[in-house]
Structures are given as C-alpha cells and as structure tokens.
Amino acid sequence: MDTKQLKLMTLDEAVSRIEDGMVLGIGTGSTIELLVPEIGKLVNDKGYNITGVCTSKRTEAQATALNIPVIHVNDATHIDLAIDGADEIDPQLNLIKGGGAALFREKVIDEMAAQFVVLADETKLVDYLGQTFKLPVEVDCFNWRLVMRHIDAHIEGEVTRRMNGEAPLITDNGNYILDVHLTTKTDPYELHEFLIHLTGVLETGYFLDIATEAIVGTQQGVKVLTK
C-alpha cells in the first residue's frame, strides 16, 4: 500500500473518537484533508453538532465548504479533541510538525485540547526527532537572517529559509519558516528552549509532551500508540 492508502486506514479510528457536541480542533496537512470530508458526513448526514476550530486558513476553507460550523480560536472557551497529522513521531509520542507551515496555530489549538490525537502513516515513525525531517521554526520577517545566524552558531546542522517556488514561503501569520537540520545528538527540549527565547522566533515545530494518542496506518493494519 502507498502512503495515501495508509493514511486512509486511520480515518475510521479517528472518526470513532469524535462525539456529538464536541468542539473539535482540526489540523492541517494531507492526512487531515482526507479526514475533513468524514467530519462533514457526521455533520451533514448524521446531524452531529460539531464546532470546528481550524489550524489554518486552508483547513477553514475546506471545512466551511462542507458546512462544518467553524469558530475562531479566540471564541473557543475549550477544545474537547484536536486531530492533526505529524511529520515525525518518536517512541515517546513527541512530534515534529510544520511541514504545512501551520505549526504556530497547530500548537495553540493542540495544546488547548483536552485530548490531542495524531494521524499518520508508518513512514512518520522515527527513532529520534530529526531523523527524516528538518525542524520548522516560524520567525519574523524583520530579523530572520539574524535569527538564522544565531541558530547556525548553536547547532551542528544546516539552517535554510523555506521557499515557495522563487519566493520565500509566507505563513498564515505573515512570517517565514526556517528549517533546521537535526542530528542524533540534538536534545529536543534543550533546542526548543534555546530557540523559543530568540527574539524573532514565534514558535518551533517541536510538539513535546502534547499528543495523547497516535493512530498509525501500517502495512499490517492500524496501530494505536499511547504513552
């Protein structure tokens, strides 16, 4: 099976976590794009009263087109469940996220949720964070090059500004993304603390001690991972 088929395998398990009346955090990325129509079916076919809080403009547009009621995060007093994808998942259910450049909004919503469930295919399972994916860091456009220099002086790997064709990629917040190459020696907690205190850094793609469960599509079937 290809990765899309593995992602599709996780949807039934994910939908089973959604209950009528929930305020639902809806993530961003290719796996969530497959999930949103299933949420739409709960609302439109089964009459579920679900309120979505979306992690990106792209997800919000998709949800709205499917008649899923959506509110802004500032209007949400709580989030019962957040469902999102991940770029990497380590054995402790720590994550790297931000491949879709929505990491800040994702972290706001995922941290706010009473439960945060990750959907992924088995290629996202890693031994250590940074094994297959660089760490995204969202930074202000004003001093991005200065921030890059600080990061470059602190780590062993390479730091690059993410591009969208010929131009720098711009996030929903109007910022840049720096992608940081990690090594087996990189301590996620230490690096996050260093990065988050740099003036100009909005957030990092480290999602540490946030996920409560991971639903993973594998060649052997769906596996549910918990801490």
Automatic annotation (TrEMBL):
Family the UniProt entry places it in: Belongs to the ribose 5-phosphate isomerase family.
Ranges in coiled-coil conformation: none
Binding site for substrate: T28, G29, S30, T31, D84, G85, A86, D87, K97, G98, G99, G100, K124
Subunit structure: Homodimer.
Pathway participation: Carbohydrate degradation; pentose phosphate pathway; D-ribose 5-phosphate from D-ribulose 5-phosphate (non-oxidative stage): step 1/1
Record keyword Protease present: no
Sorted UniProt keywords: Isomerase
EC primary class: isomerase
Upper lineage: Bacteria, Bacillati, Bacillota, Bacilli, Bacillales
EC number(s) reported in the record: 5.3.1.6
One Gene Ontology term, aspect cellular component: cytosol
This protein's name: Ribose-5-phosphate isomerase A
NCBIfam families: PRK00702.1, rpiA
One GO MF term attached to the UniProt entry: ribose-5-phosphate isomerase activity
Catalysed reaction, written as an equation: aldehydo-D-ribose 5-phosphate = D-ribulose 5-phosphate
Organism (species): Staphylococcus microti
Active site: residue positions: E106 (proton acceptor)
Role summary: Catalyzes the reversible conversion of ribose-5-phosphate to ribulose 5-phosphate.
Gene this protein is translated from: rpiA
Gene Ontology biological process terms in this record: D-ribose metabolic process; pentose-phosphate shunt, non-oxidative branch
Gene3D superfamilies assigned to the protein according to its UniProt record, in alphabetical order: 3.30.70.260, 3.40.50.1360
Keyword Isomerase: yes
